[in-house]
Write the C-alpha cells for this entry.
Amino acid sequence: MEQHEAPGRLGVGMIGYAFMGAAHSQAWRVAPRFFDLPLTPEMTVVAGRTRPAVEAAARRLGWASVETDWRAVLRRDDVDLVDVCTPGDTHAEIAIAALEAGKHVLCEKPLANSVAEAEEMVRAADTAAARGVRAMVGFTYRRVPAVALARELVAEGRLGTVRHVRAQYLQDWIADPQAPLSWRLDKAAAGSGALGDIGAHIVDLTQFITGERITGVGGLLETFVTERPLAAEFSGLHGAAGSGTGPVTVDDAALFLARFEGGAVGSFEATRFAWGRKNAIRIEINGSLGSLAFDFEDMNVLHLFDATEDPRVAGFRRIVVTEPEHPYVSAWWPAGHGLGYEHGFVHQVVDLVRALGAGEQPTPSFADGLQVQRVLDAVERSAGDESRWTAVTTGASPDAPPGSTAPNPQVVTTGTRES
C-alpha cells in the first residue's frame, strides 16, 4: 500500500472573536474536513481584551486556548499564522508586528485606515516574504463560486473588451436613525463608513473580475444621520441603544464614477441606508461580446448574456453555480445544493493554506489591499474637492507588489476590540 506523509501542522492564532472572528473560526474548523490541504490548521489560540468573554468565545468557536494580550500570541512557538479580525485602526500595528515575529498573516479588509498605513504594511510584507513569511488580505467575496466563475469567463474573453462596470453594495442595518453607535461609525476606529466597510469589497471585486485597476474616480460621500444613541450592547452588526448620544464621524453612503486602466467606465454605490437590501452586492459587466450579472442575495447564480448568439433566441442565461466543474464546488454537496455566506471564508482558508504549502504568495496580497486603499483614498479626496476627477495614486498592480517610497505612518497603539 502506498504510504502518504501526514500534512504538517499550521498553528493559527486569531485576534478578535466577534462577527468576523466567528466567520473565520468556522472556516478554520471546516476547511481541512472538506478539502485536501498540505498543512493541517490547528485552532491554537484566540485573543481578546476581556478574559471571561474571550474564554466563552473560545469554547463556543473551538479555540484551544486564550490570551488577553495580542502580543502574547506573537510570542508563542505554537502559532505559525496570525489571523487579524479586529477594527481597522489596529490592523497595521498587529500585522506588522506579526510579520516581524515570523508569523504568516491573514488580515481582514480593508487592509488599513489610510494609504500610509497600508504602504507600511506592504513594506513589512515584502521584507517578510524574503524570509518565506506570507501575508494576505481577506477580500472573501472573491471566493464565492459564481464570482470566481465570472473572473474565469472574463479572462477567457467571453465578454470581449470590457466597456461598462456597475457595482452596488446595499445594506439597511443602520437605516433606522435610532440604531446605536458602533465602532464602524467612528472614523478613528473604522477609517471611513460605507466607503471602506462595504465599498472596499466592490472595488476589489470589480478589479478582480475584470483583471484591471481603477485609475481615476469622481466621488460623493454623504452622512444622513450625524448623531446616534450610544450602544448598551452589540451582537454582530446590531445593538441595543443605551443612554446618551454620540456623533457619527463617517459616511453613510458613497457614490463614485470610475475609469479602469483598459478604458472601461464604472459606477459604484455603497450604502447602509437601503431599506430592504440586506447584503445586496450587485455586479454587472458589459463587454463588446456580452454581459454578466451577479447579486449576492442570490449568490449561487451568475447571469451571462452572449451577444454572439442568434438574436432570435438570445437572452441572459441563468447559470446555477453548483456543479462540480465550478470553482470550489466539487468538495461540497451534490449539484443543485447551494452554498452560503460562510463557504467563502472556507475557500479563503483553502487558498491561503495551499499557497503556504506550495511556498507561494497567496492572493489577494497586501499590495492588492493597498491598491484598494488608494482607490478609497481617491474617492474621499474627490468628495472633499467638490467631486472633481481625481487620479488614483500609482503603485502596485494587482497581485504584483513593488516597494513603496511613502513615509512611515504613525502606527496606532490603541487597545484591541473584537471585530
Observations:
- The CA atoms of residues 291 and 403 lie 36 Å apart.
- The mean pLDDT is 92.
- The two ends are 48 Å apart (CA to CA).
- The first strand starts at residue 8 and ends at 15.
